[in-house]
Amino acid sequence: MRVSRGEIARLIPHAGAMCLLDGVAEWDARRVRAVSRTHLDPDNPLRSGGRLPAICGVEYAAQAMAVHGGLSGKVAGRPRAGYLAALRDVVCSEPWLDAHDGDLVVEAELLLGDGERAMYGFTLRAGGTEILSGRATVVLDAGAERPR
């Protein structure tokens, strides 16, 4: 891994079991490819009724976007809270994340961004099977007071 779970935890505002990504395999100024096996963890905090619905992959994608922002220097200083402002063209090709053994691969590509908001395309796959894809718009520190 190019970036470890511990390094990820320092880049995003998620802690403990809510830090869902295990590592970053590769990244550049436009893209990030993260991996995780937490979708198989029976104590995953996103599970409901003992299962992990594929739509929860949006949170995995959002964390990959946050990691990308931190790694690429788009988000300086302490981890900033990001808020999903919009989801578009979300397709769940499979019903469950936890039905797939092996690594969950989370890819996100920066489509537009200005440091206060960003739009990413994302895809989640396991074993070559696409599970979830879509686009997300994220607003950073929405409502936070700006320095003058």
Q: Which properties best describe this structure?
A:
globular, Thiol Ester Dehydrase, Chain A, mainly beta, single chain, seven-stranded antiparallel beta sheet, 148 residues
Characterise this structure.
With 148 residues, the protein is mainly beta. The chain contains two helices and seven strands; from the N terminus they run βαββαββββ. It has a single domain (3-140), classed as Hotdog Thioesterase (Thiol Ester Dehydrase, Chain A). It has helices at residues 5-11, 57-71; strands spanning 3-4, 23-27, 31-36, 82-92, 104-113, 117-126, 129-140. The chain has a seven-stranded antiparallel beta sheet with strand order 1-2-3-5-6-7-4. Strand 5 (104-113) and strand 6 form a beta hairpin. It starts with a strand and ends in an 8-residue tail after the last strand. The mean pLDDT is 90.
Order of helices and strands: EHEEHEEEE
Strands side by side in the biggest sheet = 1-2-3-5-6-7-4
- Cα separation of the termini: 40 Å
In CATH, what is the class? Answer: Alpha Beta
Please tally the helical runs, counting DSSP H or I stretches of 4 or more residues: 2
Structural class: mainly beta
What is the global morphology? globular
Estimated share of beta-strand residues: 35-45%
| Spatial extent as radius of gyration | 15 Å
Predict the CATH topology. Answer: Thiol Ester Dehydrase, Chain A
Question: What's the β-strand tally?
Answer: 7
Instruction: Compute the average pLDDT.
Output: 90
CATH superfamily: Hotdog Thioesterase
Helix content: 10-25%
